[in-house]
From TrEMBL:
Protein name: NodB homology domain-containing protein
Keyword flag Electron transport: no
Transmembrane segments: 6-26
InterPro entries in the record: Glyco_hydro/deAcase_b/a-brl, NODB_dom, Polysacc_deacetylase_ArnD
A Pfam family annotated for this UniProt entry: Polysacc_deac_1
Keyword annotations of the record: Hydrolase, Membrane, Metal-binding, Transmembrane, Transmembrane helix
CDD domains assigned: CE4_NodB_like_3
NodB homology domain: residues covered: 44-229
């Protein structure tokens, strides 16, 4: 009997690894089935992307900053937050930014059934469509973790990143974020940032440090002839 339990347990572990960790390894480490950079065409192009919003305070401050420099970015939104703040989603769209899907709730795809995952995506896409009258075809999985069903779907383009600012934590402050961005950014970079700190593992006030760091980083980039683009440019 114990042997049967061990065999069953081993099979379940193997199935779990095939369902979650292996697909994530393929997309993040080997960059299969996913996009990590933007095309540069001999220009110094980079893309700012923001996850977990919208937030009633931080997203608005961020939009004001981007607008002041005529910069376009990409926002991967949670459907549950988009439902609460449709006016912010509408502004993101009207300001000329791209809106992508980040699930309805910030849940790990490894623990979602194919049906539950599809519901998370379709519900969020429907909310975005209702507010903006535009179809969302770009998807960033929470924590960048994909599962097997995402590798076989054909509707969405999976967008990951080449620069991660670790800005979900307040620990390094704006100076630490700015330093990391400065050291890691190069032409073609897709930069992962956050405009909401109300998700699991994040610090609630973290986005204010992101915004302060961006004020300096944007200035540096513009002085050095970088162009900010949406990931669909």
């Amino acid at each position: 009997m114990l042997r049967i339990f061990v065999i069953i347990g081993g099979l379940l572990v193997i199935l779990f690894i095939l369902y979650g960790p292996i697909p994530s390894l393929l997309t993040r480490l080997f960059k299969f089935f996913s996009i990590h950079t933007v095309s540069i065409n001999n220009q110094k192009r980079i893309a700012l992307t923001f996850d977990d919003g919208p937030h009633p305070v931080y997203t608005t401050l961020l939009l004001d900053l981007l607008q002041s420099h005529s910069i376009k970015a990409t926002f991967f939104v949670l459907g549950s937050e988009a439902e609460k703040y449709p006016a912010i989603i509408k502004r993101i769209h009207e300001d000329g930014h791209l809106i992508g899907i980040h699930n309805y709730k910030h849940k790990c795809n490894w623990f979602l059934s194919p049906k539950h995952l599809n519901n998370q995506i379709e519900k969020t896409a429907s909310i975005i469509k209702k507010i903006t009258n535009s179809d969302a075809i770009y998807y960033r999985p929470p924590w960048g973790l994909v599962s097997l069903p995402l590798l076989f779907q054909k509707k969405l383009k999976i967008i990951l990143w080449s620069v991660m600012a670790n800005d979900w934590s307040s620990k390094k402050g704006s100076e630490g974020i700015y330093s990391l961005l400065l050291n890691q950014t190069k032409p073609g970079a897709i930069i992962l940032l956050h405009d909401n700190g109300d998700t699991f593992g994040a610090d609630e006030d973290a986005p204010i440090h992101t915004i302060k760091a961006l004020e300096r980083f944007i200035g540096y980039c513009l002085q050095n002839q970088y162009q900010f683009v949406r990931i669909d440019h």
